[in-house]
Amino acid sequence: MTESAVADTRRLNSKPQDLTDAYGPPSNFLEIDVYDPQIIGVGRSRYTTYEVRMRTNLPIFKLKDSCVRRRYSDFEWLKNELERDSKIVVPPLPGKALKRQLPFRGDEGLFEESFIEERRSGLEQFINRIAGHPLAQNERCLHMFLQEESIDRNYIPGKV
Amino acid sequence: SGLFVQIIITAMSFFGFGQSADIDIVLNDAETRKKAEHKSEDGRKDKYFLFYDGETVSGKVNVTLKYPGKRLEHNGIKIEFIGQIELYYDRGNHHEFVSLVKDLARPGELTQSQTFDFEFTHVEKPYESYTGQNVKLRYFLRATVSRRLNDISKELDIVVHTLSTYPELNSSIKMEVGIEDCLHIEFEYNKSKYHLKDVIVGKIYFLLVRIKIRHMEIDIIKRETTGTGPNVYHENDTIAKYEIMDGAPVRGESIPIRLFLAGYEMTPTMRDINKKFSVRYYLNLVLIDEEERRYFKQQEITLWRKGDIVRKSMSHQAAIASQRFEGSSNPERSQSQSNEEGDS
């Protein structure tokens, strides 16, 4: 090979991109909405549930569109399962707000509108970050949380 | 009274009243020899005379008496050419791999300042000078006037570069990697051995993208390894971070790479130098997704130092340059980019 003073900087050959790939729908669509807070029950045993709606085209999820109702303790359960079984660094949940559960508050406590909104937003961020993680997508607990009507706390943990 | 005089002379040299001398080492080709920049341990960049393997090192040692008229008694004058490796965690031990000595004067005395010629013919300099994080390899001349109580010596450091020619075999690096069902890419770098002023030309082809990628970069990592056996220590240093893609790619997309190495401070790859240390370089392809998660693939490359070539005429250079740009639609590629199995 002859030495030359000018380096060869030509691009390597590439396959031209298929138009269906260029203009096709993205294969990484994943959106989870946490919305519609509802207060269930009466008196001291009231709690808030949220609708968790997932839309995706990732093949690892059985349902491309799913809708379930979950409460804060369900999110806590999911966080604990993932911390135990998966190798990911689980993002933080919005706060537990124990103070809001004490009596003699001037406001609605756990059911204060602004607090519910803050919590809803934090839960939405939390679940979106987790569901997008390739290592979390392997876990049965995540699929059960997102796509089964109720969470079976006696389930057998494992990989999908 | 002989002993009395001896005590006085000893006391005089102890208090600095004895004769002393300055030593100066001057190379014969100091006017014509090129100098090269080399970073010292404290980070300062200095210029030193540049030598290659096999070159003769010759010059003069000037011994200048501090107090003219007084004699300088000595136990011999010599000059050494030394190549040594110094591990920072073991400073006391210098491992000399080249050690040559020439006697300039037998024990005696100097009555006046004197100049001595020396020549180390065709000296072997098998390794390149290197100053790193935990190890230093240096070459130097050391002239010594031996004396009973304290020697007078002077060192002159030089820098050695090791040159290579274009490797006969220089296959491209081509590999398909990924995370099952999430991300599959095929990456290709045009060569596995690059010289220090070379260009890394390559591409990343996306076969499957099921994660949201925010950007992609190539890092050049230098790894200095010192020690042997159970005491091996790696020091990693990211020399460069070069963004090659901003935004989310889709399946079928091809991202080009063009990374000019001349802008970075690097050395040739050094493997197991005198069984004491290694300096190796890696390309790290890093993809970062929307959640700051990093996916990466590291690949070693071999760096070598090319000798400077005589500049060809401007018109010849222009002819080559125009060929390069016109050749973009030309499917023919130069020999070094032929389809061979990539190194792993």
TrEMBL record, chain A:
<dbReference type="GO" id="GO:0030904">
    <property type="term" value="C:retromer complex"/>
</dbReference>
<keyword id="KW-0813">Transport</keyword>
<dbReference type="GO" id="GO:0032266">
    <property type="term" value="F:phosphatidylinositol-3-phosphate binding"/>
</dbReference>
<dbReference type="Pfam" id="PF00787">
    <property type="entry name" value="PX"/>
</dbReference>
<dbReference type="GO" id="GO:0015031">
    <property type="term" value="P:protein transport"/>
</dbReference>
<keyword id="KW-0007">Acetylation</keyword>
<feature type="domain" description="PX">
    <location>
        <begin position="28"/>
        <end position="152"/>
    </location>
</feature>
<feature type="region of interest" description="Disordered">
    <location>
        <begin position="1"/>
        <end position="22"/>
    </location>
</feature>
<dbReference type="GO" id="GO:0031901">
    <property type="term" value="C:early endosome membrane"/>
</dbReference>
<keyword id="KW-0597">Phosphoprotein</keyword>
<dbReference type="InterPro" id="IPR051074">
    <property type="entry name" value="Sorting_Nexin"/>
</dbReference>
<dbReference type="InterPro" id="IPR036871">
    <property type="entry name" value="PX_dom_sf"/>
</dbReference>
<dbReference type="GO" id="GO:0032456">
    <property type="term" value="P:endocytic recycling"/>
</dbReference>
<dbReference type="GO" id="GO:0034499">
    <property type="term" value="P:late endosome to Golgi transport"/>
</dbReference>
<protein>
    <submittedName>
        <fullName>Sorting nexin-12 isoform X1</fullName>
    </submittedName>
</protein>
<keyword id="KW-0653">Protein transport</keyword>
<dbReference type="GO" id="GO:0051223">
    <property type="term" value="P:regulation of protein transport"/>
</dbReference>
<keyword id="KW-0446">Lipid-binding</keyword>
<comment type="similarity">
    <text>Belongs to the sorting nexin family.</text>
</comment>
<dbReference type="InterPro" id="IPR001683">
    <property type="entry name" value="PX_dom"/>
</dbReference>
<dbReference type="GO" id="GO:0051246">
    <property type="term" value="P:regulation of protein metabolic process"/>
</dbReference>
UniProtKB/TrEMBL annotation, chain B:
<feature type="signal peptide">
    <location>
        <begin position="1"/>
        <end position="20"/>
    </location>
</feature>
<protein>
    <submittedName>
        <fullName>Vacuolar protein sorting 26 homolog B, like</fullName>
    </submittedName>
</protein>
<comment type="similarity">
    <text>Belongs to the VPS26 family.</text>
</comment>
<dbReference type="Pfam" id="PF03643">
    <property type="entry name" value="Vps26"/>
</dbReference>
<feature type="compositionally biased region" description="Polar residues">
    <location>
        <begin position="325"/>
        <end position="344"/>
    </location>
</feature>
<dbReference type="GO" id="GO:0006886">
    <property type="term" value="P:intracellular protein transport"/>
</dbReference>
<keyword id="KW-0732">Signal</keyword>
<keyword id="KW-0653">Protein transport</keyword>
<dbReference type="InterPro" id="IPR014752">
    <property type="entry name" value="Arrestin-like_C"/>
</dbReference>
<keyword id="KW-0813">Transport</keyword>
<dbReference type="InterPro" id="IPR028934">
    <property type="entry name" value="Vps26-related"/>
</dbReference>
<feature type="region of interest" description="Disordered">
    <location>
        <begin position="320"/>
        <end position="344"/>
    </location>
</feature>
